[in-house]
Amino acid sequence: MACVRKWRNNWVIDYRDAEGTRRIITVGSKDEGNQKLADISQALKQGTYDPGKAKQKIKDYAVEWLESRRPEVKPSTFANYEYALRVHILPALGNFEIGKLTRPAVRRFLGRKAEQKKQNGTATLSKDTVRIIKAALHAMLETAVEDGIVPTNVAHFKKGRRIVATGQSKGEKQVRILAKVFTREQLFLLLQAAREHADSYVALFFLLARTGLRIGEAIALQIGDIDFVDRLLSVQRNIVRGRVGTPKNGVTRQVDISKQLVKVLGQIVLDRKEQLLRLGMSADLLPTMWLFQNEVGKPMDSSKVRKAFSRILSKAGLPHRGLHWLRHTFASLLLQQGESLAYVKEQMGHSSIQITVDTYGHLVPGGNRQAVDRLDDDGNNLETFAKLEEEEQMQLIEKIGATRRSRTGDLLITNQLLCRLS
Questions:
Q1: Rounded to whole angstroms, how far apart are CA atoms 128 and 353?
Q2: Class assignment of domain 173-400?
Q3: Angstrom distances, CA of residue 286 to CA of 122, 283, 402
Q4: Higher local confidence (pLDDT), 167 or 109
Q5: Which of 8, 240, 252, 272 shows its CA 20 to 30 Å from the CA of 80?
Q6: What is the three-class DSSP state of 24?
Q7: Region 192-199 average pLDDT
Q8: What share of the chain is helix, strand, coil (3-state, %, to 5)?
Q9: Which distant-in-sequence residues (6+ apart) come within 8 Å of 31 by Cβ?
Q10: pTM of this structure
């Protein structure tokens, strides 16, 4: 008769499989044993559990599983799975028989990853890295359950359980964000240093600070994604490790752009148009050209952008922050001026309002199309980016000839270029 009992100072499940063969499985506790025995009994009744396959090593099963996922997931997700398995999961758990991996072993493994130090000994693995490791392990073992190899997914924890290095509360997370976001004055110093030491990145940094786009979304923008009439950006793509895919969560969105940003982006379009004409090429190529491109016409490399950002912070005398803090800064400045979390959610492309609430705090009233305009300076800072009056904006649209994304206007240059940022 199947049971959970003590054996050699361990808790074990003692049962017979569908062929009558006696099986003994070690578990971490009596409660875990009872739960697993219930899962096994149910799987045996349904005929979906084959304990013979459970002797397969995780490192062997992982190869087959990863390849099976390639056509089913986004390239960026596949790359994350491959990285998590190769660098973290297989070195630690690869020699386990898949049927002998226990929930406590998984909990200890994830806990160690949450506490793991990088080579410099000063920073833990990022929260996102730990999340990717857990997601890859969970997905692989979930498939093993579906394949009838194991009766239960030992990487599945009850909702709300978090494997983290420190028990950081939502409030602590919000305090940390507020402590590290850029102030308006710091943004001015950052852009000023970029103009002096890395001019090719000024417009990109300005766009990140004014739209809250992820770096992969920003470098995947094409000129045709800009609507100069309604002042909108269409976020349709994302580039991760050089591969073009859909934005995070697979959802495209439209993002409001301020008048100052319209001027900056309009200057890029005019410069690109002039370049095409010098080369004797048609201006009809403009809509499909990358907005931020390298010297060979390809999208900028996000790793090079991050390195440039780090150098510019040093030149500006600012504390080191990751490029993603421009995104946090955008959201924080909007909320500080009274915009709603619902508006911030739509601009940021969060999958749910709960993510916005958890990250940026209490809900505030307000929010409209003029929200991004109020991020523009009042004349005391960011003087380089002088405000566009309505007449000047219309002149810009006439010069570019671009109206809405649904059609291509006359993009030939007929007037002098707009003043540069300097």
A1: 19
A2: mainly alpha
A3: 46, 6, 10
A4: 109
A5: 252
A6: strand
A7: 92
A8: 55, 10, 35
A9: none
A10: 0.59
